Amino acid sequence: MDRISNGTYPPGTLIPTEQQFAAEFGSARATVNRALTSLAERGVLERRRRVGTRVVLGLEPEPERPSLPVIRDMIEERGWRFDFRYLGSLPCPVPPQAPGEPAERLFRSDPADLRELRTLLYCDGRLFCAERRWIDSAALPQLTDDLLRTVTANEWLAHNTPLTLIERLVSARSAGEVGADQLLRCPPEAPLLVQETTLWVGARPLSWTQHSFAPEFRMDLSRAGDGVTLAAPARRG
């Protein structure tokens, strides 16, 4: 994006291949593919098999910014009580022990600046979600432990960050696979619904989150048309 903005790759230009970018930046080809695919989905690039990747002609800035759903609002507007417990932050190990996927998702960040934030979310007093969020602490220095004991990172980011892209992926995973078994107090083999979200500002991903929903909860897709989903209790009581 920096090179497109400064005219290095003007509209209509074929940019280097995935292999060339991977060699230049010393990154995995899968990381490069993920970044280029994201830019293509945003309309910045056009990718054609056996032809290459080209900067789109007549690129214009997006007129509207995406809105990040606030989990507190989604709970309370349905008449339920929302609460959370912030468990603290963990520095990510430095290379070569740095976690692969968070470092790949936040590929514009220095791995030494990555922090993992852990929060438990409650609905009507019942634990319904474990949130593991990785952030670039250099880009988001405001997200301190003191702040996060009073407000969730989700709520703060929704109201204070000029997001330009929100990427979401929902999948079925085992609790142990996403490190949520101890957080949710369930067996490692328990199947969970997991929503992964990457938040972007311009060409930079700032946050990658795994929301792992407790086994007894289900996803409510009644408002899926506007991109909003919510894990709701399977039963009340």
What is the strand and helix layout of this fold?
Blueprint: H1 2-5, H2 18-25, H3 29-41, E1 45-48, E2 52-55, H4 71-76, E3 82-91, H5 100-105, E4 114-123, E5 126-136, H6 145-148, H7 153-160, E6 165-174, H8 181-184, E7 191-201, E8 204-213, E9 217-220, E10 230-233
Antiparallel strand pairs: 1-2, 3-4, 4-5, 5-8, 6-7, 7-8, 9-10
Q: Which structural class do you get from the secondary structure elements?
A: alpha+beta
Give the % helix.
Answer: 10-25%
Tell me the Rg in angstroms. Answer: 19 Å
| Tally of contiguous helical segments | 8
Overall shape? elongated
Strand order of the largest sheet: 3-4-5-8-7-6
What fraction of the residues are assigned to beta strands by DSSP?
A: 25-35%
Number of strand elements? 10
Euclidean distance between termini CA atoms: 50 Å
Please describe the biggest sheet, giving its number of strands, its sense, and whether it closes into a barrel: 6 strands, antiparallel
The string of secondary-structure elements, in order, is HHHEEHEHEEHHEHEEEE
Unreliable stretches: 94-98
Rounded average pLDDT: 84
Detailed description of the structure:
With 237 residues, this protein is of the alpha+beta class. It has eight helices and ten strands. The protein has helices at 2-5, 18-25, 29-41, 71-76, 100-105, 145-148, 153-160, 181-184, and strands at 45-48, 52-55, 82-91, 114-123, 126-136, 165-174, 191-201, 204-213, 217-220, 230-233. Strands 3-4-5-8-7-6 form a six-stranded antiparallel sheet. A two-stranded antiparallel sheet has the order 1-2. A two-stranded antiparallel sheet has the order 9-10. Strand 7 (191-201) and strand 8 (204-213) form a beta hairpin. Helix 2 packs across helix 3. It is elongated. The termini are far apart. Mean pLDDT is 84; it is low at 94-98.
